[in-house]
Amino acid sequence: MTRTVVRPQWVGELGRSFVTFSAALVIGALVMVATGRDAWGAYRTLFAVAFLGAQNLADTLLAATPLIFTGLATAVAFRAGVFNIGVEGALYLGAFAAAWIGFTLTGLPAGLLIPLAFLAAGLAGALFMLIPGALRAYLRVDEIVTTIMLNYVAISFTSYLVNYPYAVPGLANAMSPKIALAAQLPRLLPPSQLNLALIVVLLLVPLVHWLLSRTTLGYELRALGSNPIFARWSGVPVPAVILQVMLLSGFIGGLAGAGQVLGVNYRFVDNFSPGYGFDGITIALLGRNTALGSLIAAVLLGALRSGGATLELFVDIPKDLILILEATIIFFVTAEFVLTFPRRRHAGVH
Amino acid sequence: MQAFTDLAFATLRLTTPIILAALAGLLSQQVGLINIALEGMMLAAAFAAVLGAFYAQHALVGVVAAVVTGMLVALVFAVFVLRFRANLIVAGLAANILALGGTGYLLQVLYQTRGAFAPPGLRGLGTVHIPGLSQIPILGPILDGHSPLVYVTWVLVILTSIFLNRTVTGLRVRAVGEQAEAAATVGIPVRRLQYGMLLAAGGLCGLAGAQMSLGNLQLFVYNMTNGRGFMALAAVFFGQAQPWPTTLGSVVFGFFDALQIRLQTTVGVPPQITQILPFLSIVVVLTWVSWRRYRGRPVAA
Fold first, then answer.
1. Are A126 and A65 in contact (CB under 8 A)?
2. From the list A132, A281, A327, which residue is nearest B98 (CB)?
3. Is residue A245 exposed (0-12), middle (13-18) or buried (19+ Cβ within 10 Å)?
């Protein structure tokens, strides 16, 4: 590091994220103009729908809630250099576990039922991640491939559950029975569906931050992520750390599913996730695998998501535009040329 | 007997896009690049294939469009990974999201649909009948009457094997994958070979996409690849990026894919359960391979 100008690291990070976001918006605009759509109008609508007015803001936070969970789940794994793509699968199993508690233990009071549902969801997610985690930690089976494959398994399995053993006769779409009233999370700002899950995840953010920065596991996983060989030689129990990281990631991913079931859908709905788990990857990257960064990135992406649906309805722009923006963001976040280029040349590294 | 030949026929047909994508994955792996973008290249290509074949009223144009599109996605991926040093895995995921969003966006802007797109009068690849082949008992009905790309695929497997093992360029490619810095030291143009192999991978995924949307079916469906690219990647892991073992892996996964469709239609097992089969088989097979490879050795990071 031959950088001479000392500036806080977050200034550079913020600048990078800003450039990245702008680049995505420019490319999105080009796509829209090329296909004969009004890009300026689209962005104005997007901004208004995402941020103007209490209800719109509430809807943005509602869209951000599962993304903060999945962003944190992904960030803890990526921070350790473990490429866990399986958060989506953990989310599905967690969602079903929460729903199951919610429609089975109907006699319990809310104060017991809700924590129990969250706990069951987290455990289901962690249990799911036990498979790729143990395989990666002890048998060196590549976690990228196994987690991607197991996502399909988890999604199909939960689909089976609500189509067969837990099918509700008379419903057009496959979904579980409705959860008990006591299990439903209170709304924060009705009529928006924004609910207590946001508070849960906002409490989780400092917890994950503390875990990453102040605990032994946090230290070990960061060491593993920045230099696996150094970590091993300095005595980090590598397989155990990998396994714990995967379990933790699965636990948080499971909580994401519980949040959606207890707070929004009140049942497990077949195929309910539009890729929250995969969005977690974008968010973790954009947030530089930190807890606070993930929170900010999730709110930004939540704004895009919540605005995307409106775009399709009112301005005739397919919501797949949001995916194009997201892909561009990921490309630019991971590329090294935006702001680091002059620094690299200065440092003479190539 | 009929059930067996039907299953074998379906396996050969469904295996084809997986083998093509797996060849793409192994060429990338041979220059030291894990290719997560296979899925996206295939998907974009499958879309372009339908478009090309529809507007030109000729399947061959569709195949060309697919190959070009696959290579374009590969080029974007390659530029970010090789020029801008983007993280390989992350850039691959981005390419997949781009392909999904891009095809979804165009599907809706051009044809106002979110699901299947089957323009009337779309010409598929058709089938090839080799004279005399169908007369051979058992093998005949399995091998005869596929789309031309099925046969092309097996030729490509042979060519890939020859290329890697019997040509100078192939030797250099393997050297890059083995130890890129050492290869660069002896004057091998590492960067150029990496670009070349990624573009070739794009072309192969293009063929895979064309087989999916013009061969196996004659339509494009939103997210129609649905994990086939990742199955191919798993086959590369299984075969350690060697052409024949990788092809074997692809056939195994293709077989489970064909089997699950068959179980659905004949035995009446819920589709959600049979769909698990190919994906679960991959996890089991990769675990078995890894267990055999690393048995008794200490685990490194």
1. no
2. A327
3. buried
Flag if A334 and B100 touch (Cβ within 8 Å): no
pLDDT tens digits, B129-142: 888 777 888 788 88
Contacts of A96 (CB under 8 A, 6+ apart): A124, A158, A161, A162, A176, A257, A268
Residues A117, A196: Cα–Cα separation, whole Å: 14
Tokens of B121: 């009068």
Q: How many interface pairs between A and B have CB atoms less than 8 angstroms apart?
A: 151
How close, in Å, is residue B271 to chain A by CA atoms?
Answer: 8
How confident is the model over A202-255, as pLDDT tens digits? 999 999 999 999 999 999 999 999 988 999 998 899 999 999 999 999 999 999
| Closest alpha carbon to B75 in B41, B118, B32, B46 | B41
Identify the closest residue of chain B to A135 by CA–CA distance. Answer: B287
Residue of chain A with shortest Cα separation from B291: A139
CATH architecture of A54-314: Orthogonal Bundle (1.10)
With beta carbons less than 8 A apart as the criterion, state whether A66 and A259 touch: yes
Strand partners, A269: A175
DSSP string for B231-294: HHHHHHHHTTT-HHHHHHHHHHHHHHHHHHHHHHHHT---HHHHTHHHHHHHHHHHHHHHHHHH
Instruction: Specify the residue for token string 């636990």.
Output: A251
Residues of B in contact with A237 (CB under 8 A): none
Under DSSP, the state recorded for B127 is -
CA atoms within 13 A on the CB side of A112: 5
Chain A residue closest in CA terms to B295: A139
**Record: contact B105-A152, CB cut-off 8 A:** no
**With the C-alpha atoms ordered A232, A235, A240, A244, is the resulting torsion angle positive or negative?**
negative
Interface predicted TM-score of the whole assembly (ipTM), two decimals: 0.88
**Beta strands of chain A (E only): which ranges?**
none
| Tokens 């649906």, residue located | A309
What does the alpha-carbon distance between residue A334 and residue A332 come to, in Å, rounded to a whole number? 5
pLDDT tens readout for residues A35-77: 988 889 888 888 888 888 899 999 999 999 999 999 999 999 9
- Measured from the Cβ of residue B282, the count of other Cβ atoms closer than 10 Å reads 29
Domain limits of chain A?
54-314
In tens, the pLDDT along B168-205 reads 999 999 999 888 889 999 889 999 999 999 999 999 99
The answer to whether B264 contacts chain A (CB < 8 Å) is: no
Asked if A7 contacts A315 with a C-beta cutoff of 8 angstroms, the reply is: no
Is there a contact between B97 and A327 if contact means CB atoms under 8 Å apart? Answer: yes
Region of poorest pLDDT, from A3-17, A293-307, B56-70, B72-86: A3-17
For B108, name the nearest residue in chain A, comparing CA atoms only.
A318
Helix B190-210 with B228-238: angle, nearest 10 deg: 130
| C-alpha distances out from residue B82 to A301, B92, B99, B196, Å | 28, 12, 20, 12
Chain B hits for A138, Cβ within 8 Å: 299
Decide: B202 and B74 in contact? Cβ < 8 Å: yes
